[in-house]
Amino acid sequence: MNILLLTPGINKEFNDNYYAYKYIAEKNHRILAISNIENILKGAGVEPSPEVEFDGNISIHRVFKTLKEQRSCYPAIKKYNVIKKIVKKFDPDIIFCENSINMPVAVRIKKDFHIPIVLRLEFLFDWDSPYGIIGHQRFIKNKITGDALGKIIGFLCWRWLLRHSDEIISHYPGDRNKAIGSSRHPRQAIYIPWPGKELVSGEKIERHQGRALFIGSFDAHKNFHEFKKVLPELFSRTPVKEFYFVGTGYYSYIVDELRKTFSNRIKYVKTMPRDECLRLIKSSYFCYSPAVRGGWGFIGDAWAMKTPLVTTCNHYEFNDDIDSIVANDESIVERINRLYNDTSYYEKIAIGGYKRFQDNHRAEKVGESYLDVCSKALKG
After folding, report:
1. pLDDT tens readout for residues 199-246
2. Would the pLDDT of 146 be above 90?
3. Residue range 275-314, pLDDT digits in tens
4. 155-159, 189-193, 236-240, 335-339: lowest mean pLDDT where?
5. How far is CA 252 from each of CA 56, 223, 245, 321, rounded to the nearest angstrom?
6. Cα–Cα distances in Å, from 378 out to 114, 149, 227, 316?
7. Residue 274 DSSP SS3
8. Of 137, 275, 141, residue with least CA distance to 199
9. DSSP code string of 6-57
10. Less Cβ crowding at N or C end of the chain, within 10 Å?
11. What's domain 208-361's architecture?
12. 208, 176 in Cβ contact below 8 A?
């Protein structure tokens, strides 16, 4: 199978999904990836990558200079002739489109080459939370119209995506078996867990008992205001001595405020290669995420590194006291102190998370699921 991958970022040093595609390529399928030079790092920074790169059966052409250029409709269509020439030489059987931003190009390729589109999304459209599919919550939501504008834009975008895609994958477990399409043409979304890879699992890394950690973009859905409430409590009432942030985004000002208050107890790194992130996770005593949606790469990496995950919003079907600790403002101090005081409890959460990773999130397992969906789309 020749798979054309349209992706906002692909680099084996930084991206969670890379190893799912690597698995597919090692199964004797060919992948042509169209992307941008400005690849997204773990922690939401950027680092330039080569314009052209080869890794076995994976060939990567970074046609766009920046992610902004790739996600803007006019520049993307403007470069279509360059993309079409590369695609024609590759002779794809199917388009695997990551993210709705790549759909304008995907639709043109579909029409020119008469091949199906598999669209992979983090979330399907949801009337109650329209920003999962369109983003830009900070710019669209306002005090006057609330979510009304976001719902209208999100719904119109969703209708267009449905019309032009042959199969749709969602990485959000709440979308499992969700009916999509119309009453005349009913379809079902396909849920596939977010992939991860244990790149440093065999290394012996000392765990620092006083360290906790967050990695990810500093965006609205990561609920950063909770750090302002929770970290003072953790520093004063638990054995936590330092808290690491890795990432960038609008809410970095909250990290700056925390650094002023707690000085060297707050460690901040803007960007970090994937293997270094995994080492940092493995060397931390626990990971903490207040996110209300997303952040699955960080969550999966915590499970893969057998580092207990503490969260305050159950947006990912967490199993409290099994694979994660699902706390609230009142219980978080008590729950974290139990991690420190009860060794068997700590091991239970760590092993429970690792088992969930092995059962659901391994890159090889996710890659096999991607292949199944592509085969289904080709059969029509």
Report:
1. 776 788 899 999 999 999 998 889 999 999 999 999 999 999 999 999
2. no
3. 899 999 999 999 999 999 889 999 999 999 999 999 999 9
4. 155-159
5. 39, 12, 10, 31
6. 11, 36, 47, 30
7. helix
8. 275
9. E-S---TTT-TTHHHHHHHHHTT-EEEEEEESEEEPBTS-EEE--SEEEETT
10. C
11. 3-Layer(aba) Sandwich (3.40)
12. no
Taken as a whole, the chain contains a residue count of 380
CATH of 2-196+362-379, one of 3.40.50.300, 3.40.50.2300, 3.40.50.2000, 3.50.50.60: 3.40.50.2000
Beta carbons of 51 and 37 less than 8 angstroms apart: yes
Cα–Cα distance for residue pair 26/12, rounded to 1 Å: 15
What DSSP element (H or E) covers 62?
A: strand 58-64
The domains of the chain are located at 2-196+362-379, 208-361
According to DSSP, the β-strands at 46-48 and 38-40 are antiparallel
Return the residue matching tokens 């003072």: 232
Sheet holding 52-55, edge to edge: 52-55, 58-64, 30-36, 2-6, 94-98, 117-121, 167-170, 190-191
Task: Tell me how many degrees the CA angle 7-13-18 measures, rounded to the nearest 5.
Answer: 40
Tell me how far apart the alpha carbons of residues 32 and 4 are, in angstroms, rounded to a whole number.
5
Q: Is 223 left (phi over 0), alpha (psi -120 to 50) or beta?
A: left
Whether 86 shows a pLDDT value over 90: the answer reads yes
Burial class, 89, CB count within 10 angstroms (exposed 0-12 / middle 13-18 / buried 19+): exposed
- Tell me the three-class secondary structure of 66-124, residue by residue: CHHHHHCHHHHHHCHHHHHHHHHHHCCCEEEEECHHHHHHHHHHHHHHCCCEEEEECCC
Give the global pTM.
Answer: 0.89
* CB-neighbour burial class of residue 255 (10 A; exposed 0-12, middle 13-18, buried 19+): buried
Angle formed at CA 22 by CA 176 and CA 198, multiple of 5 degrees: 75
The SS3 assignment for 168 reads: strand
- Alpha carbon distance, N-terminus to C-terminus of the chain: 15
Predicted confidence at residue 71, as pLDDT, reads 81
Structure confidence by residue, pLDDT tens digits, 161-209: 999 999 999 999 989 888 887 666 778 899 999 999 887 767 888 999 9
